[in-house]
Design goal:
Helix 1 runs antiparallel to helix 2 and helix 3 packs across helix 4. This protein is of the alpha/beta class.
Amino acid sequence: MSQPAAHKDVAQPESFSFTPDNLERAKRIIAKYPAGKQQSAVLPLLELAQRQHGNWLPIAAMEHVARMLDMAPIRVREVATFYTMFNLTPIGRNHVQVCTTTPCWLRGSDAVLDACKKRLGVGVGETTPDGLFTLVEVECLAACVNAPMMQVNEAFYEDLDAASTTRILDALARGEKPKPGPQVQRQTSAALGAKFENTLKPNGSD
């Protein structure tokens, strides 16, 4: 599975610090954890740092979080490199993550990934020349019932095929925000074709 270039090969900022607003957010996050357990805030603080830094995590940001939580920098880097939600290199405006784990693969994720490559003109781990899209292949995004699916930034697009995948990417390229969720006639994660009726009656009625 190809991924973007390693962060050690990317130009890194010399320093990082939270903005005053984000510093206050970070302090509120840390305060949620019991005394002595503040290191449990490492995930939300890394996510906050990534948002602040254009959706990717430089080494300086990881070290800043490590200092705030009194952690060894290598431990913070271990967390950041484990989860695919963290980007260790600059990415495009639309981060396209295609799940190819078994349920998605059995339901056609190869066609979804091929549609992405064809529409975007890039391979896995690459960014389009206009900086609009970065394409990656990931392991399990936890939407197995609605496989195959892809995540674009924070939105899940489910029950995909090649045609619906291309339509979504076309809309994103036009600056639109296509509706996330199932791309077929499915209600959330219910069985296809299932119909639901509200059988609840007002209080006092039979």
